[in-house]
């Protein structure tokens, strides 16, 4: 097979073209506009499909340079941290607790569904866990970590890495596809509208146009950009250092450490009145990083892995999507208040419940850009999806491994 290796510059061009392709296709297809399918998802899946056809029929492939993937992802989470001042977190305190409980219940439900179906189909129940919260809530990183664990005694599941990567890929795509339609259904059915704009647009006397309104124009100067870039660089350095410093018994994804450093930087500088973070500028950098990261993640997806899934695994994943939809409509939406904010939270829950927190953010962005902002959702979802859910997920996975289904 002839495979062309693209350098960092060619890969960057491809990432941008994916976004432009997604925007163009959405502008021409009413269904995609009506159901708020994100631009990176549309463009990325189309490019991944084209690459799959080229591999199959023309023995031609592309190998993208991954140098920008992690920095873009980490930068996005840092900007989320830099946007999270403690005063805003206090405003979303009750909703944060309620949403966290709903998410915790879903993690347990997701694993129970996966293990139960795997057992009923007579396949290794580890496939059910990998097709549960390990790959779907945890994503590719969590899948790789647990897959390495499952290949060793007493589990000896040699195909765990392939299964985990395929499930995480499936979840990344499906999480981006269903989030918008689910939220749109809830908004239309219950005729929901954003709350009083005075309360949600004003923070500390300043009109805040953040991640929930990514298409708003923002005034940025070279001086302020350098200041914001300095904060991001510091958070990247310290966050990655902390990630490597921690012992293996206390492992958290690097992006969690970077987000945490961003929160500390923001609130420390604010408390001592050293520097005021420029929220509008931070959100611009974050939105660009998010879109480019998802463009790379989806255009580099190997769709052949999904086509090669065994029938039991395909059944597990299909049921998991259905369970996700039912859970957010019947549980998440109701316990979170059955209002517009709850509908936006459901879009986010679909994103990280099947894929990843960046997918959740894009899902919510498409909804809020269409119907109006939801500040509480953009406070709650990043904290739950990027931090708390990892802790809940680890505890849930370890708890399920104690069941008699699995070797001890």
Quick check: average pLDDT?
86
The N- to C-terminal Cα distance equals 43 Å
As a whole number of angstroms, the C-alpha radius of gyration is 21 Å
Output the number of helix runs.
18
Low-confidence stretches: 198-209
Strand order of the largest sheet: 1-2
Tell me the major beta sheet: 2 strands, parallel
Q: What percentage of residues falls in helices of 4 or more residues?
A: over 70%
Q: Please report which band the strand proportion falls in: under 5%, 5-15%, 15-25%, 25-35%, 35-45% or over 45%.
A: under 5%
Q: What is the number of E strands?
A: 4
What is the general shape? globular
- H/E order of the elements? EHHHEHHHHHHHEEHHHHHHHH
> What class, by secondary structure content?
mainly alpha
Q: How is this fold's topology laid out?
A:
Blueprint (H helix, E strand, L loop, with lengths): L1 E4 L2 H21 L1 H5 L4 H20 L1 E4 L5 H14 L3 H6 L1 H29 L3 H10 L4 H12 L9 H31 L6 H5 E2 L2 E2 L14 H24 L8 H18 L7 H21 L3 H5 L3 H25 L4 H15 L2 H15 L3 H26 L8
Parallel strand pairs: 1-2
Antiparallel strand pairs: 3-4
Write a short abstract of this structure.
It is built from 18 helices and 4 strands.
